[in-house]
Every structure is written in structure tokens, then in C-alpha cells.
Amino acid sequence: MKRNGFIAFFIIILGNLMAIKLIDRYWKRKLQISQWHINRFQDHYWLLNHWLELKNEGKSVASYFEDMGYKHIAVYGMAELGNRLMEDLEKSSIQIDYGIDRDISCSIARIDEVYYPDDELPETDAIIVTPYSMFDEIKELLERKVKCPIISLEEVIWSV
Fold it and tell me: 111 vs 40, 78, 89, CA distance in Å?
């Protein structure tokens, strides 16, 4: 009888320890995801703040492309940062040939010609990746498809 009680007690303790471990793992993962989002939004803040400083100084990211000799570009990422880039280049000599996005039905895209990353992409001088936190993965994907430079929006903004 005592032996069965000991086994039951041991199983209960073991079950509780496993539950604690699973709960701990769950909350650590939630914390990692939250920290990733905090870092991402903090990076966005600094990037957009610097971009606004440039605008207040009368500068445009167009100067980056002109200095690099890029007259035609494509924009990867048709969300908010892609739209801000297109707005900044509206009155410049830089032509945005097309957009690239995993969701070509993106309702906030402000360009008519949008391709999936897996599509055959037309030639252009450079592709600018606006979701810069995913730049390495996107660059690796695009390098198999195009011969032009693939540049992070972050590089463009901080180089002006």
C-alpha cells in the first residue's frame, strides 16, 4: 500500500514538474517574440526618425540612387515603408519599375505592377528591400533570380 502511494506521489510530482517546464518554455517563447517585435519597432523608429531628419534638411533618398547611377529600381515590400519610399521618389528622376511582394493583392500598395518573389522579374538597376529586418533571407531568395544589386532600405536611408 505504501509503495502504491509513493508511486502515485512520484507521478504527481513528475507531472507537475513537466507542466512547470512546459509553462516556462511557453512564456520564454512569448517573451522572445515580444522582444523581437520591440526591437523591430525600435529599429523602425530610428530609421523613420533619420529619414524625417533628411526630409527636414531638404534631402531625399533619390540622391543615393543618383550617386550610385541607378535610374530604374524595383521595390520589394509594398507595405508602409515601400509606400514612403515611393512617395519620396515621386518628384525625382528615379523610376520605380515595379514592386515585389508575397501578397500582390496588398490593398495599400500604390503601384500597379506587382510581382510575386517567385515570378520572372524584369530587369532593373537595383531592387530595394523595405522589410529590412528580413533582408538576408529576401536577398538570398532574389539573388537566384536577378543579376542587379539587392539593397536594404536601411542602407539607403543611413547612406544619405
Answer: 25, 8, 13
Average pLDDT estimate for 9-14: 86
Same domain for 132 and 73? yes
pTM: 0.82
Q: In terms of pLDDT, which residue wins out, 4 or 52? A: 52
| pLDDT value at residue 8 | 82
Domain co-membership, 67 together with 146: yes
Render pLDDT for 58-101 as a digit per residue (tens, 0 to 9): 999 999 999 999 999 999 999 899 999 999 999 999 999 999 99
82, three cell numbers = 515601400
Q: How many structural domains are present in the chain?
A: 2
Contacts with 74 (C-beta within 8 Å, 6 or more apart), sequence order: 96, 97, 98, 99, 100, 121, 122, 124, 126, 127, 128
Last residue of a domain, one of 58, 74, 102: 58
Cα 89 from Cα 121, distance rounded (Å): 21
> Which residue range(s) make up the domain with 147?
60-159
**Domain check: are 49 and 88 in the same one?**
no
